[in-house]
Amino acid sequence: MIQAQNLGLSLSGKAILRDLSFTLTPGTVTAVLGANGAGKSSLLTLLGGDRPPTSGTITWFEQPLSAWSAQDLACHRALVPQATHLAFPFTVEEVVALGRLPHTSSALDRMALAAVCRQLHLEALWNRPYASLSGGEQQRVQFARALAQLWYPPGEAPPRVLLLDEATAALDLKHQIAILTAARDLAVQEKVTVVAILHDLTLAARVADAALLLHRGHLLRAGPIGAVIDAAALSEAYDTPVSVLRHPDTGRLLVSAA
Fold first, then answer.
1. How far is CA 200 from the centre of its chain?
2. Which fold has domain 2-257?
């Protein structure tokens, strides 16, 4: 379980996040929602331990996040950013293998790479230069690298956190759903805590269990996804009229500008 209490962040004297308190539960997908500049990516840097908060505390699985060593964090937390640029002529396999650097067993590394390759259907890309891929293909490879970083043998289930910072922004609809479904499977089947910044609110309603809705650095609403995907709250957060409907056949929430 991850708990944030009265979390705040200021940069160069400007308040970016103010007094955020919430709990993230293992085995769930939490969507982080909000307009551009609301503080979503800044929040992810705090949750991942990449930057200390200016105020408040973060507890990871009953320990202060500050007490986790960089090595331990690297074995239990993976981040997929919106885009990653590499200056070296790595193959896809070599990029995915970067996720195994914090680990120490070459035998398990081989098992992890084989499992991730199969899971994300990367066989046709495996030996290609990473730089030759499209932006969407590169993003799929980065997701594979994160899965390899969090891979443990069947039966082992240490606490793990997967952070997705607009990781599906460059993908077509098919691969957006495929990656978020894989993230959801990781949460449900292996009790990983998944936190994903998403701009597609309908997609967020489809894959997330819960959501944090940010507005100008404040936590406007938090809770089950159905309670956060609310027309009034979203209209306030995005400063534009929003409609929330239900699909007539599936019952899924559909979000659009009013």
1. 14
2. Rossmann fold (3.40.50)
Q: Which residues contact 149 (CB under 8 A, 6 or more apart)?
A: 74, 75, 78, 99, 100, 102
> Hey, what are 140's tokens?
């799929």
pTM above 0.90, yes or no: yes
Q: Which amino acid is at 51?
A: R
| Burial category of 81 from C-beta neighbours within 10 Å (exposed 0-12, middle 13-18, buried 19 and up) | middle
Is the model's pLDDT at 127 over the cut of 80?
yes
**What DSSP element (H or E) covers 194?**
strand 193-197
Q: How far apart are CA 135 and CA 104, in angstroms?
A: 31
Which structure tokens are listed for 117? 């390759």
180 vs 198: CA distance, rounded Å:
10
Mean pLDDT for the stretch of residues 121-125 = 94
Q: State the Cα angle at 169 between 171 and 194, rounded to 5°.
A: 100
Query: Of 88, 57, 54, 60, nearest to 1 (Cα)?
Result: 60
pLDDT greater than 80 at residue 100 = yes
Q: What's the chain's Rg over C-alpha atoms? A: 18
**Using the 8-state DSSP alphabet, how is residue 186 labeled?**
H
Q: What is the DSSP letter of 129?
A: B
The DSSP letter of residue 118 is: H
Decide if 51 contacts 119 (C-beta within 8 A).
no
Task: Please tell me the distance from the alpha carbon of residue 85 to that of residue 88, in angstroms, as a whole number.
Answer: 9
All structural domains of the chain with their residue ranges: 2-257
